Amino acid sequence: MNQLFIIKIGGNIVDDESALAHFLQSFATIEGAKILVHGGGKLATRMAEAMGIQQQMIEGRRITDAETLKIVTMVYAGYINKNITAILQQHGCNAIGISGADANAILAHKRNSSITDYGFVGDIDQVNISFFQQLISNQLTPVIAPITHDGKGQLLNTNADTIAQELATALSHFFTTTLVYTFEKSGVLLDTNDEASVIPLIAPDYYKELKAKNLIFAGMIPKLDNAFTALDKGVSKVIIGKADQLIHLLNGHSGTTITHA
Amino acid sequence: MNQLFIIKIGGNIVDDESALAHFLQSFATIEGAKILVHGGGKLATRMAEAMGIQQQMIEGRRITDAETLKIVTMVYAGYINKNITAILQQHGCNAIGISGADANAILAHKRNSSITDYGFVGDIDQVNISFFQQLISNQLTPVIAPITHDGKGQLLNTNADTIAQELATALSHFFTTTLVYTFEKSGVLLDTNDEASVIPLIAPDYYKELKAKNLIFAGMIPKLDNAFTALDKGVSKVIIGKADQLIHLLNGHSGTTITHA
After folding, report:
1. Residues with Cβ < 8 Å from A233, sequence gap 6 or more?
2. I need a surface site. Which of A81, A135, A163, B45 has the fewest CB within 10 A?
3. Interface contact B77-A82, CB threshold 8 A
4. How many Å from the N-terminal Cα to the C-terminal Cα in chain B?
């Protein structure tokens, strides 16, 4: 099977013009099939503030009401997605920016919770595998904004980490798939204040041990659980590390690699 | 050759939620190959006002400065483009929303004028014909936002009428292409205050005669010149008419048809 890299960049990188430019330059040099999934960054929040739209928060989570959905659609699927695409084109990477509505790429449903109304948040039902295969076989590089749709005309806001994981899982039946989460940290750290304390390799038994000893930073647990889910469902490898070391991450010379055994 | 319809909807329709919904429902029923090009509408101006961004105007034209480009990219390529795509998907039309940067679909350069600095306005250099052929042969319906790129990482604002004409021209070598401009009027009118005064057919000689007699409303002349340019370059037929009569327009039962002879 051919190799496929699915790489997610977080909001902090998206917000930082020079960090983003550096990242995209490296990303464009990756040979073969690749997909970029980007987060949203703080621009949507700043836009909402500038327009006087009140942000509803419940337990630290932003609620996606109708006005917020409008803004995140503009910012994520418009401004960020098209700028990333234009910059990748500049570097000779034949990028195509898409949201989940385009070609029915990612079908979702509005999250159903009897406790909290999250608003227009989408949980993924299906990835349009044949569409992504079509793009990849035409040497195109999908750049995915974290906006999905429900097939009934409604756009939805979906977590970019989850999109990356669902894509990796769906495409792992056709490609040897590596899922890469990049952010501002050097990887999974034993000591969150020490960038040199990166754990190079985590397999399931070691993860259990680290969790039992409370050595994993709470904020990292959902990402790692997500990573092991992806591995269980067919993804070959998950790498977590620093966006500005992308090529080293892919070579296994930086960051944390999560593997099955 | 197969038939291809390239249909442009203007800003007034895009701004009117129920008129847009009605138009998209009709558009989705068109059999075979079709492309939708949409204008911008007033939402970008309203957004800029809400954010306190001053709109620079020169001779009634909005200048696309960096802040305005950011907003039109958000609104045209984000909000409007993705909503139209989601609604077409709802109606069973396999739409894919794209801007000129996506897959290098429409390459342009920043307009060069020694008299007026239009800002980030793009004049089209090249349409990526093979990409559009690829989409159409995969039964996808491109939905195009009036944003292009220069191949050097810069997004540009490009007139939607011109995009529709350039696409129709480029694709007319491979399809029997009909270009349709839809807006809120019933067609080219002999009397701009009388919707019943639609001219059903305009050929070059009649156009010369109408212009000589000053019978063409000034605002319509660029659209008609554009239409004859398209015909000269290989487009089979141009139709101008009311968005809410789309199917009648395509059947020749409404609007103004512009033909070569």
Report:
1. A169, A172
2. B45
3. yes
4. 21
Check CB contact of B152 with chain A, cutoff 8 Å: yes
**pLDDT value of position B60:** 67
Residue B41 pLDDT: 80
> What's the mean pLDDT in B231-241?
96
- pLDDT tens-digit readout, B14-64: 999 999 999 999 999 999 999 999 988 888 888 888 888 887 777 767 789
Contact across the interface for B149 and A86, Cβ inside 8 Å: yes
Q: Which helix (H) or strand (E) holds A83?
A: helix A81-90
Tell me whether residues A52 and B47 touch, CB distance under 8 A: no
Which residues of chain B does A77 touch, with a Cβ-Cβ cutoff of 8 Å?
77-78, 81-82
- The verdict on a CB contact (< 8 Å) between B82 and A97 is no
Domain count, chain A: 1
Q: What is the pLDDT of residue B179?
A: 97
Give residue B251's domain range: 3-258
Tokens 């974290």 sit on residue? A146
With CA atoms as reference, the chain A residue closest to B44 would be A74
Model ipTM value = 0.94
The SS3 assignment for A135 reads: helix
Q: What is the pLDDT of residues A57-111, one digit of tens each?
A: 777 677 899 999 999 999 999 999 999 999 999 999 999 999 999 999 999 999 9
By the 8 A CB rule, do B60 and B50 touch? no
- We report the CATH number of the domain holding residue B103 as 3.40.1160.10
Q: If we measure between CA atoms, which residue out of B106, B182, B185 comes closest to residue B149? A: B106
pLDDT digits (tens, 9 = 90+) for A6-65: 999 987 899 999 999 999 999 999 999 999 999 887 888 888 888 888 877 777 677 899
A29 min Cα distance to partner chain B (Å): 16
- The CA distance from B65 to the nearest CA of chain A, in Å, is 15
